[in-house]
Amino acid sequence: MPAPGLSVHTVRTRRSAEDFPRDEHLAWKIAQIAAQAPPACETVREMVVNRIIDDAAVAAASLTRRPPRAARAQALAHPAASGGAPAWGVDSAVSPEWAAWANGVAVRELDFHDTFLAAEYSHPGDNIPPILAACQHAGASGADLVRGIATGYEIQIDLARGMCLHEHKIDHVAHLGPSVAAGIGAALRLDPEVIYQAIGQALHTTTATRQSRKGAISSWKAYAPAYAGKAAIEAVDRAMRGEGAPAPIWEGEDGVIARLLGGPDAVYEIPLPAPGAPQRAILDSYTKEHSAEYQAQAIIDLAFRLRGRIGDLSRIATVTLHTSHHTHTVIGTGANDPQKFDPHASRETLDHSVMYIFAVALQDGTWHHERSYSPERAQRPDTVELWRKVATAEDGEWTRRYHDPDPAARAFGARAEITLDCGEVIVDELAVADAHPQGARPFGRSQYVAKFRSLADGVVAPDEQDRFLATAVRAAELRPDELGLLTFTAAGGALAAAPSLPEGLF
Q1: CATH number of 7-284
Q2: Which positions fall inside the MmgE/PrpD C-terminal domain (predicted)?
Q3: DSSP class of residue 436?
Q4: 294-430 belongs to which homologous superfamily?
């Protein structure tokens, strides 16, 4: 059953000799939705503001980390000849695709912004840096920006509802390239022909394997969505100049479905709003209170809750987390990644190890985006000992709840069974994170602002925090000449204190 207000579109491979008119192409349907995107309703406008603040919060916290610094250095080597968009953290305008690159890496680096999980998983907040950069460069208004972001969220989430990528080992950013192209098209009121060609190009250039999230996970995990956003801006530029795309990109005989996903016989059911209908998918997404893979959010909160019941953690003999197929195979022992138990693993690997995350959350009773992943923390002998006692197990009921068509009933948590050395078994479960819309402490505007204040502390001066927040809450009302103010600058010395980086080509 599709979400309310959406209609299901059947998508499958078509032979080259088959009569398949363009108005039936999935890319054309998406282009029509983007071209006729209506102004966002008040509830959606408010959530767009929340997610702009959320993206800025996690970007501020990552500004001095190596991957965002490297991406920003690349961006600063590409100043805008005219127009341009701000690179967050510095007072410089760069070419919009490079602003999207730098800001996108900063947003994604800590794995700490919003998520949507269904047939595929996604971080729809990745749409914001490229759509914002394109709007700032093109002289769009705040209302244009909000409409574009709402469209980007809608398309990425709807693709994630109906088309699984990870089972075919394709990275989830293959849904992001098309959604960004659609979002920019909606914001700039581009012709559907232009949007159609941009979607095809963006998808064609952003399909990659899931190895970026497997085994020894590197900093490319942060770069992958930024690359998709940058590629989508470039695709829009080419399409505006009259350049075309492979078509039909999803359904072609050698297209994405036939060669990268389920094959020539696969059928996908994609729910989409009608052209001109409200786009509300952003309201079905959810942000993170903790800097870790989303399926670990409820498990962190569960660990906090269990600490008092266990007492002396050295008494733990084994821990089994009964959870969904996705959690078990992506961040659990079902992934069969020995790196997930390696005390010397990268931060990117550790935040995809629910065994590590559960052990540290049990021991500390708190979670921090840096301290919880430090080498000293990961290599503590008592942590390593507890960590290796934790395993996950796939549970059919948790898998069913993970995919429940009703967003209010969907669950991303686990049931923990902790066996003590005396044989006693302690059992508890948590369906959704406390910060989830259905959780114990759902995030609202005040929580988003508090998250920004906390993560920007020591990086962005208080008066600059105030200025940014005052601008963000007016996002839908900003004039074209004000949209460039939707950025922030790091406090003096905050960036200079970071270690120097090797030079690149630029």
Answers
A1: 1.10.4100.10
A2: 290-471
A3: S
A4: 2-methylcitrate dehydratase PrpD (3.30.1330.120)
